[in-house]
Structures are given as structure tokens and as C-alpha cells.
Amino acid sequence: MNETEQRPSAPTPTGPPPGADQVFGSRLDLAVRFHGLLAQRGVELGLIGPREVERLWDRHLMNSAVIGDLFPQNARVVDVGSGAGLPGIPLAIARPDLRLTLLEPMARRVGWLEDVADELGLSSVTVVRGRAEEKVVRQNLGGADAVTARAVAPLAKLAGWCLPLLRTGGQLVALKGASAAEEVERDAVAVKAAGGGVAEVVARGGEVLEVPTTVVLVQRVEVERGRDARRRRRKER
């Protein structure tokens, strides 16, 4: 390599954009620290691609945190397939009243989540290794007020995994892409079979994000079984 050639530089973490203080409030410094952890160790561990570093704030941190108003005060929330900690860690920063469980099956990612929660002092966060469909997980984490997930699975599978973790009346808050409405229509029967009500598509963060976060909401309803279901069908005839 001659003197005129330059090696490509590593992505440089960027500071918080306009609107970040509105989303994270007085805890913006924690969001900045999480951003730094993702941009460095998160990339080294393969949790975030190097090209994502420049887009961490809008596509990952703020995209996750803007859904905070969809959860009741002091709710017990399970983040299924938390991975790099999205949306769970930004939610814990923006909504410290939430009691968050980060559920993740991979040991390496579990270690990362535990380290992040410890380094940021997120006392409301618990990390659990496991999968939502496992019996022991449903026994230990069932009855949650809300379950959230981001880029985990199609809605039909997600409903089957997540709705059993909810109390009746609890809500699945699934972060989805632009095809959310099509997914809701396609998977309506599977969602109902899993114990869900009519799914609703909402957007959040339009005031601070160029591309708002698209969310699918599904409430856990009472599931009719056996005699009750047969009785209802007879009445409908």
C-alpha cells in the first residue's frame, strides 16, 4: 500500500439525533451508552452488522423505544427473542417502570444481555434463557401483561408462541414492517386459534422518526374449549 492509499475506516458511532431527548427524556445518557455498546461490542459479537452502526439511532434504538406508550404503567413485559436487546433495552431505558424479561435462547446473546443490563444499571430487567414455546418458560413467565417481539417470526407463528404467555386481556405488541396489514389479513385464522382477538395495525414515532414504527397489536382473549365452544356453535345454527 502506497502513501496515497488509505485503509477504510471503521464506522464511527454518531451522537443522538433530534428527538432522542423527547423519546428517552432524562435517561438519554443511558441510551447513548447502549448505542456505544452496540456500535462496538455488538458489532464484534455479530449482533449488529457494521453497516447498521450509522443507523442505530433511528432504525434500532428509537424505533424500539417509541412503542413505550402502548404498555400500561408498571406492566410486566416479556421481550421474546430479544437478541441484541431490541426492543427490550430501549424500552427499559425509556420506561423504567416496566418490569421487563428479556427471553433469548442463545447463550452468547444471553451473556451480552446480562452484561448490558448490569453495565447500564437496569434493575427492572431480567434475562432468561429459553424459548417462548417451551413448557417451563410458559410456566415461569405466563400471565404477563404484555409480550413484545421485533423481527422474530411471521404473525401466525408469533401468536402461537407469545399469546400463551399473556394473561387474559394482555396484549402482544409486535414490531413489524410495511407489509403488516397483509400479514394481519393472511394470519387472522391462526391468530384466533392461538387465543387472540382481532389484530390492529398502528404506527408510532412519526413525530421523531422519518419512518414511523409499525406495530401489530393483538389482545389475548378467553379461549373457548370443549363444552363451551360446542354450546356456542349450537346457538349460532
CATH class: Alpha Beta
Q: What is the helix tally?
A: 10
Task: Report the CATH architecture.
Answer: 3-Layer(aba) Sandwich
The fold-level CATH name is Rossmann fold
* Number of structural domains: 1
Q: What is the residue-averaged pLDDT?
A: 90
CATH superfamily: Vaccinia Virus protein VP39
Structural class: alpha/beta
Large-scale geometry: globular
Give the distance, in angstroms, between the N- and C-terminal Cα atoms: 82 Å
Please give the share of residues in helix.
25-40%
Q: Provide the low-confidence segments as ranges.
A: 1-12
What is the spatial order of strands in the main beta sheet?
3-2-1-4-5-7-6
Strand content: 15-25%
Features:
237 residues, 7-stranded mixed beta sheet, disordered N terminus
Structural summary, described in words:
With 237 residues, the protein is of the alpha/beta class. The chain has one domain (20-222): Vaccinia Virus protein VP39 (Rossmann fold), CATH 3.40.50.150. The protein has helices at residues 20-24, 28-44, 56-65, 88-94, 107-119, 135-141, 155-162, 180-186, 188-193, 226-236, and strands at 76-80, 99-104, 125-129, 144-150, 166-176, 200-204, 213-219. It has a seven-stranded mixed β-sheet, sandwiched between helices. A hairpin with an 8-residue loop joins strand 6 and strand 7. The radius of gyration is 20 Å and the shape is globular. The N and C termini lie far apart (82 Å).
